[in-house]
Amino acid sequence: FGEPGMPTEHAHIGTIDVVCGWGGAFACVCALLKRTRFGIGSFCRTSLAAAGQYLQVPFMHDFPGRIFDEPKGKVRGAHALHTCIECSDGWLFVAATGASAKPVEIAEALEKLRIAGISDLHEFCTCRTKSDVLAKLQAEGIPAAPLSSL
Question: Is the pLDDT of residue 7 over 90?
Fold first, then answer.
């Protein structure tokens, strides 16, 4: 593809189409393996948009020189108040707000925790047991549950 005297354009047509076909074939193989192993089939699909997103992932997420400088490490939830938190004897999932909470809702939940004497939820949990943290959060009406694995 391309006009005379111009470079051949293949990135917009060939690459996306090939990756989309590969994605469709891979999805079909996965569905057939599931049927073979578990006796049930699966629904599979792909699209040019999905193939384009797949091709862009390395450039959006991981690139040379990227520094992982998140203050609490990798994300273990939607945000700081809807997350997995490590206590001295295991993990809890705390849902002080919904996963898609607006900044105002997060600020209100932070204020509720501050009034309860918890200025930093992660710091509060680190030096306490799951049962102590659960009791305190439940007394304040903040949903939390222990995790058996992470």
Answer: no
